[in-house]
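Please decode residue identities from the backbone states below.
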């Protein structure tokens, strides 16, 4: 009995009490009888009226035999003859399944965590033919997971998750056929392997990446060498282009250093020759003036 049934029964009984009291006041036996009938109806409602949520189905037994599925909403029971045996949730549910330290087909111990989604499709079968449909579907899923792991190699487990999900789903559906469980789907969440094997696989993957990097670098070196060979042929046919390229390289190497570089070229020699032709000749320097000496002796005159 839920709160809605309690409220409805209480209101009916209260109305009956008020009607009966009013009949006593006016000395009317008919009104009193109506009030008593309302009180009895309220009591019957409290015993027979039930409600079920939108996602719930009530399995009703009449004298021990299946009488039907009731709900959702309001429904009635025959007092002393019908009982609600079970209330089944028809929403989609999830169950976590795991397999610890299970050997694969290539004798590697792994631990796998999965999650299974399911719902009750046939309420009668799930409630009357299974003692505990939730526990049984979980146990079937766990044993099926171990069987799938034992029949699969580690490489396939790590690289073919979707195929393992489909295989595990088919195992569970095959074993639970006729149970009233439907819409089964399985997803593998995590796969744990021994730390030693994990380290070895990491080193193997790192070595493979280094191998690919070296192959890529060698391919790049070959391409660069081919382009350099083609460029050398072009420069051999055009020396001016080679000189321009050299000047560009010098500029690129020193443009951020603020360094001035003087490069001797034929242009500089030609400019030097033209400047030398246009400069006038310079007079020889005169000796500095000093004291006068006579030709005859070394003593100066007074």
């Amino acid at each position: 009995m839920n709160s809605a049934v309690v409220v409805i029964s209480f209101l009916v009984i209260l109305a009956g009490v008020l009607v009966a009291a009013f009949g006593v006041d006016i000395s009317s036996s008919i009104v009193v009888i109506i009030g008593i009938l309302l009180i009895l109806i309220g009591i019957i409602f409290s015993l027979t009226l039930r409600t079920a949520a939108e996602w719930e189905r009530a399995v009703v037994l009449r004298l021990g035999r299946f009488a039907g599925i009731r709900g959702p909403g309001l429904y009635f029971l025959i007092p002393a003859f019908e009982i609600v045996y079970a209330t089944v949730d028809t929403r989609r549910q999830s169950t976590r399944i795991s397999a610890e330290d299970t050997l694969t087909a290539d004798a590697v111990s792994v631990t796998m965590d999965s999650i299974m989604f399911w719902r009750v499709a046939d309420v009668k079968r799930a409630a009357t033919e299974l003692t505990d449909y939730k526990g049984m579907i979980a146990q079937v899923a766990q044993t099926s997971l171990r069987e799938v792991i034992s029949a699969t190699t580690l490489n396939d487990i790590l690289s073919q998750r979707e195929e393992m999900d489909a295989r595990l789903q088919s195992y569970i559906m095959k074993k639970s056929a006729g149970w009233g469980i439907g819409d089964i789907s399985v997803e593998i969440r995590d796969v744990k392997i021994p730390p030693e094997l994990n380290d070895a696989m990491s080193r193997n993957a790192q070595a493979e990446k280094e191998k690919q990097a070296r192959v890529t670098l060698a391919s790049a070196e070959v391409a660069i060498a081919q382009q350099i060979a083609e460029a050398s042929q072009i420069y051999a046919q055009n020396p001016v282009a080679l000189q321009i390229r050299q000047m560009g390289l010098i500029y690129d190497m020193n443009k951020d250093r603020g360094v001035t570089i003087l490069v001797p070229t034929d242009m500089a020699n030609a400019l030097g020759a033209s400047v030398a032709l246009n400069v006038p000749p310079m007079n020889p320097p005169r000796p500095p003036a000093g004291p006068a000496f006579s030709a005859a002796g070394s003593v100066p005159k007074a």
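Observation: The beta strands are 49-52, 56-62, 65-70, 73-76, 82-89, 93-103, 109-120, 181-192.
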